[in-house]
Structure formats: C-alpha cells, structure tokens
Amino acid sequence: EEEEEVAATVPDEAERAMLYHEFTSCMFQRFLDGEDGNFDYSQIDENSDLDNLDIVSRDAEERYFDEEEPSEAPQLE
User: Domain named CCD97-like C-terminal: which ranges (predicted)?
Assistant: First the structure.
C-alpha cells in the first residue's frame, strides 16, 4: 500500500518535462525581474558595451520625433 502511494507521487515523463519547463521559466523570469540574490546585476546595468545599439538608436530617434513641434507641410504640386 505504501509502495502504491509512492508510485502515485512519482511524475511520469510528460509531467517531469512540464515541471522542468515551469521551473526554468519561473527562474528565468525571476532573473529578468532582478530577483536573483546571487547575481550582481550592476555588472550588466552599468556596462554600456552590453547595450543593444539598435534599440538605443531607435529610442533616440523616437525621442527626437516625439519632441519635434508639429508644423504645416508644404503643398506638393
């Protein structure tokens, strides 16, 4: 009887895969949220070499156009 209870609590292959995926997803999200107490996030946050320059450039361009004053466009003939 005790052996049956143990067998019922051991996950099958599909359940193990699902639990593994759930665990790794949770840990990955905790890392992205800055909740990993064993990692020094300042190594990444303060290192401009790791910045995605495409995104930085796009953000600067968007700020430029957001700050631009609206004006009338000349009529094309």
Answer: 3-68
CA-CA distance, 13 to 48, in Å (whole number)?
43
Question: Which residues have CB under 8 Å from 31's CB, separation 6+?
Answer: 39
Take residue 69 and report the two structure tokens written for it.
């004053």
Query: pLDDT tens digits, the chain, 77 residues: what are they?
Result: 677 776 678 899 999 999 999 999 999 999 999 999 999 999 888 888 887 788 888 888 999 988 888 788 888 87
Residues 62, 67, 70, CA angle at the centre, nearest 5°?
Answer: 110
Residue 14 identity (one-letter amino acid): A
Strand, helix or coil for residue 51: coil
